[in-house]
Amino acid sequence: MKLNLINLPALLLLLPFSGILSAQDFDPSVHPPRLKAGSEIGVDYASANRKFTGIPSLTVSPGGQLWAVWYAGITPAEDYNNYVVVAKSGDKGESWQEILVIDPDGAGQARAFDPQVWVDPDGQLWIFWAQHVYRDSTRNTSLWAVSTIDPDAAKPVWSAPRTVSNGVMMGKPVVLSNQEWALPVSFWHLKQESAKIVVSSNRGKNWAVRGAVDVPENIRNHDEHAIIERKDGTLWMLVRTRYGIGESTSKDWGKTWSLLSPSAIQNPSARFFVRRLQSGNMLLVKNGPVNRQTKRSHLMAFVSIDDGHSWSKGLLLYEKGNVSYPDGQQAENGEVFITFDYNRTKDKIIFMTSFSEEDILSTDYDLKLIDVYDRRKIISDGGDN
Known about the structure:
Elements: E1 5-6, H1 8-11, E2 34-37, E3 52-60, E4 66-73, E5 83-89, E6 97-103, E7 110-119, E8 125-133, E9 142-148, E10 158-159, E11 162-166, E12 168-169, E13 174-175, E14 181-186, E15 195-200, E16 208-213, E17 220-229, E18 235-241, E19 244-250, E20 261-262, E21 273-276, E22 282-287, E23 299-304, E24 315-318, E25 323-330, E26 336-342, E27 349-355, H2 357-361, H3 365-375, E28 377-380
């Protein structure tokens, strides 16, 4: 994949590449974001001045560096002050360096939020995020991305920011067995068929909506869906709803989907994380036991050996309340890294922990519980209360 690679100061002067979907799909009032790197981040974006910190995502580069993204703001709310923070760690999370801030317009009315970080099969690192004008329902939300072909460089060179689609993406991209790349994108402005699958057949050069699941308006709650391919070739979509988690399946690569129905997986109306492991088994991270609906507490990890039809006992990752938005990746050595947030407007902490599939399935539960506790690290502690 050929990218127009530039240094960050020059990047700020460029308009985004918009040849992915037609121009009329995007609200022109949602401007290309301001990107700030290193010393350009300055006092305005310093962690000490943040009153909101949350909704993280994490990935691992081919060279083993950890990358984390989240969004923050100078007011204790999800509002027009929100901007995206990008950080990396070269020592397995012992220390973190904030290297990039993504902000559409500084103190203006546009916000950047709900970021995701992902490494594609070519080793290229992508940062996705959503932008919209706060509290203006007449203007669509747009999904943006920047990427770098060398995420292990001391100073990665980034592509120009570009629009990918309408909507918000709160689940990791997935590579299907037919080699297509699929994004779980929610079109917030639509009342029907909001939970979309957006697909690229040319390794991210172009993207197009393939199909959607209809989430009835009376049970919708941001969708935040995840897509995973089962071993029989069907796509399984899990969707955040007001009642917990809904599910739908597709037998034609996402063109059509079954009616949304309640999943057997119990969860509060909150984001969850599901991913295929190297073993072929599935990983699920959610609040509370599989068969019990809790509040946003007791973050746990589970393994399924039968493609999501049943789940193991859970490994407790964090026991307190106000913990949410798990995300992560399995590294090449099998270690699973998971990030999550805690008390976004009070403690304002982004945590990280790690474990293996064997830790979840182990009979030495007490020891593994302590091991996971000892591996817990802080990516960001927000700012002063």
